[in-house]
Amino acid sequence: MELVGDRYLGGVMRGRMEGYGYYTLPMGTEYRGSLWDGMFHGHGELRRPTGGAYRALWERGLPTQGKYTFTDGLEFELEKWLYCDGYDRRFYTEISSGFKPPGIAQLTNLDPPKIIPKGCYDCGDGFYNPKTRIVVDYKRKFLRNADDDEHEWILRTCRKAWDLTAEEQPKPSHSLS
Which helix (H) or strand (E) holds 118? Predict the structure, then answer.
């Protein structure tokens, strides 16, 4: 069953998604779980193409309880969120695996970090080009167009391709001949 660029594999009743199924949206996000009358209903999971998933109990298309797990296994906790708060700025991989030796910086939660294309920013789930206002995943597949708020947030907070300092650049070798 195909619905405006989406894909669905599963039960159908009265022309609507019903029972257990796999529903993939055009951007690659996939729902796996129970459906009723064309809506998410019962236990199901939304999986992002870049990793991470939201497992929830759904009622008529709305989640009634659920939990988001990031690609690295970190689970989001609204009430007890201790990761990257105002007091502790460590990456999750530093919390779970420990710090690197002195003098070796960890720039992102991914280690080694992704190489950012020239003129772009690493916005956590992919690269952002401020000229086109397009976010692509790390495999260069389109994710979304950034609105004004996301654009400003990325420019203000995200790592950019030109963040390396002169000290971190390889020095040219001089041969004496």
Answer: none
